[in-house]
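User: Can you predict the 3D structure of ParB/Sulfiredoxin domain-containing protein? Sequence below.
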Amino acid sequence: MSTPALSAADLWLPEPEEHDFPAAADYLDLIFDAQRVRRIVTALRQAQTLTKKAKDVMRASQLPLLPADNVHVKHNIRKVHAGGKLSPVLLVRGQPLVIADGYHRVCAAYHLTEDLDIPCRLVNG
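Assistant: Sure. Here are the predicted structure tokens for ParB/Sulfiredoxin domain-containing protein:
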């Protein structure tokens, strides 16, 4: 389902949406203590948005690529094809990289075009 004509500007919003930060906190709460979660989410809010390749985010996270027919991945792919844009992903450096928010969006981007840059916020864990 590769779509090479798409550019990063076609797929992504310039900044994360507000609801992404509490979603990241909910996920990170499963991994880290509350104080560390607050520190990480504050850092994610303050970090500059940068870009990384979908294939590199997937490799660093060591997560499996969800199939294009996964309900959430499919929703994101359809959103892009309908002219909508995806929110940048929130990442935490670690071994492996933690996708705090945006796993389905990364998988959707990979299926659309794995070499395209993904806007993200990246902080130390």
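The chain has a mean pLDDT of 93. The first helix runs from residue 8 to 11.
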